[in-house]
Structures are given as C-alpha cells and as structure tokens.
Amino acid sequence: MFEILKSDLAGRIGIIHTNHGKIETPAYVPVIHPVKQTIPAKKIKEMGFDLVITNAYITRNNYGDEAVKKGIHEIIDFDGAIMTDSGGYQVLEYGDVKVLPPEMAEFERKILTDFAIPLDKPTGYGLAWKKAESYVNHTLKVSKKTLEDSEKNGQIWIGPIQGGEHFDLVAKSTKSLVDMGFQMLALGSPVEFMESYEYKLLAQMIISAKKQMPHSIPLHLFGAGHPLTIPFAVALGCDTFDSASYMLYAKQERYITDDGTRNLSDISVFPCNCEVCSKYTPDELRQLEGHDKINEIALHNLHAIK
Description:
- The protein is an alpha/beta fold and 306 residues long.
- The protein has helices at 41-46, 56-63, 65-70, 72-76, 88-94, 101-110, 129-149, 167-180, 191-195, 199-210, 229-235, 245-251, 282-286, 290-305, and strands at 2-8, 11-18, 21-25, 27-30, 51-55, 81-85, 115-116, 156-161, 184-187, 219-222, 240-243, 254-257, 260-263.
- The mean pLDDT is 94.
C-alpha cells in the first residue's frame, strides 16, 4: 500500500497506492466542504492535488441515501483519491454528534471513500489525564470494531491516534492501533497545539507516535496547513497533512509565502508567478469585493502550498 522511495531524517518520499490512483508523499491534502465548494474540486484536481479530504458526517446529513447511491466521488465531483473524516472534528468542536460510530463506518464504506477514518473521540489539548485515557480507550474500542467489520475492497482505514499532550497515552494509542492491523495512522488533536504555538509539544506528540510505528506505515497529521508547520512535520516523519488553511487564511486576507503568511494590505509586489499573481497587482486584488477577493487569495494559497 505504501512504497517508500527515499528517506532523510525521519522524513521520506513515497507513494500510497489507492483505488483512485497513486498519491505522492509528502502530500498536502486540501479540505473540501461537501456542500459549499468555494473552489471547485475539479479545479483543485487540475492544480495537481490528487488527494482531498471531505467530511462524511456533513455529507451524510446533507445527502443521505443519495451519497450512498452516487458515491462520494460523484457527490463532490472529484476523480482523484478522497479521504473522509467521520465527524471527529465536530465532536471536538461541539462535544457530540448525532450518529453512532458503527453507522458512520457503514456510511463511509458505502460511499466508497478511498481513506476512511473511524468516528473517534478527540482528546484535544488541556484534558486531564484520566479523562484523556477514557477518550483514548473509547477511540480504540471503536477503531477495533470498525476495522473488524471492514471489507477487503482496497479501502484504506486510518487508525486515529489520540492522547494529546499525554505522551504515554499517545504511545499506547499508537501501539494498539498498529497491533490491530491498521494500514495507516493519523495523529489527532494537534490543531490546538499549533494555534497556541506549542511546537515542542507537537514534536513530542509526533515522536511519541512514530516510536511505536513500523517504518512501513504512513502517518497523517490532522490540521497542519501553515507553510512552516509542514516541513517541520515532514522532517519528523509525517507523510500527509490536511487543512483548510488556504481558505481560512484567505478570509483574513492572509497571503501564503514560502516561509509564512503576509497580510494583503502589506504587500506592494507579489513574490509569485501563479495564475492569480500573474493576473493582478496587489492593489488590483485589494480592490476586489467580498467572495471574489477571498477566492482569488485562496487560489493563490493553494498554489503556494503545492
């Protein structure tokens, strides 16, 4: 499933083989909303992104049986590989979702997503150890049942690692998922670390997981989309990263560069020759209204991350 071509430090260049083609890693995985696509999925594929992530929970709530009938690729109009989050982010944000883990797993199987994630219970950041342990145990129980019920159809189930800043729990979670036989793992709950600039904790979290993983298993990092975070994570051994940063930054008029972001208001000359920066001067882009401005900045941001 995962072919490693070259390694340097803990990082590596590789290929993940899926039902919808090969994914070259390291790979940034753009988040696509299943209902409100500001930048069409087709456009993202044309830009060279062969893997995107969308939300199976939102898809289920909005499309239901239609998604089962058509499949997730037709629903979001993307002919590359698709990863689906099963609602863990909503659990982290709102505390609960109105669906049971077996129901979400069955839905993900039926919509034929290429990478599926069990409905986990994210630990987040700042949770007491005892509470975090109960979340880890819940996630492991759900993950084991989900993998046991999965079908041998080429679909890749990703084991969600939890534990937050409790690195012993991260290690326990990782080892248990490896022992269960997951082909790929994903490190959950790092976003709050990154937002609070706790990069030492983020590094320790990644290292705690990597120590328990065979070299042959790829690791996904949830929510990593800053241009400085990505190379940092690659060096530590992460292979794929999903984020909506390209759009979130655009809504704040933040323009991604090679080493960070800059406010559009502070730019006099674009240091880029992408389709957006070749079409507009900074002044012209600033004069665009509302969604037009956001969409163009988001498009540039995707080019910059790619």
